[in-house]
Amino acid sequence: MGDQHQELPELTEATIAVQHLIGAARELSARAARELGVNATDMGALSLLEQYGPMGPAELASRLGIRSASVTVLIDRLERAGHVERSSHPHDRRRVTVAATPAAHQATLEFLRPAIMAIDGISRELDADAHRAVTDYLKRATRAMRP
């Protein structure tokens, strides 16, 4: 069958920079989790709810890559801590939607604001052509990491 372990070819400086960006994002998320007093998976759930808005438990489980039973325990834990709230789905009363609470949103925003503003400042320094090129590159790189 052959050796399935293959080394990567020599990577470009841009690819390595993206790897470093991903690592820095993980570290920032870990610091945010410590600040909010939650574990990494809980922080991942809060981040998804911040990024995509309210969603059902099944979608949250799928995005986190965990089982539905595990996401129920996670949501219970975050709800007890005051970080999320459940509500009836707006179109199907049998379904539940999970959303970050205003307090969790505010705490996350306060923690992430310095990094967000620093990145925005760097983005604003780019001329229009560079801004378009960087934005296109990052969107394509993001799509490459999604299934």
UniProtKB/TrEMBL annotation:
* Domain HTH marR-type positions: 4-143
Give the InterPro entries listed for this entry. Answer: HTH_MarR-typ, MarR/SlyA-like, WH-like_DNA-bd_sf, WH_DNA-bd_sf
Task: Name the PROSITE patterns on file.
Answer: HTH_MARR_2 (PS50995)
* Pfam families reported for this sequence: MarR
Name the UniProt record assigns to this protein: MarR family winged helix-turn-helix transcriptional regulator
Supply the source organism for this entry: Streptosporangium oxazolinicum
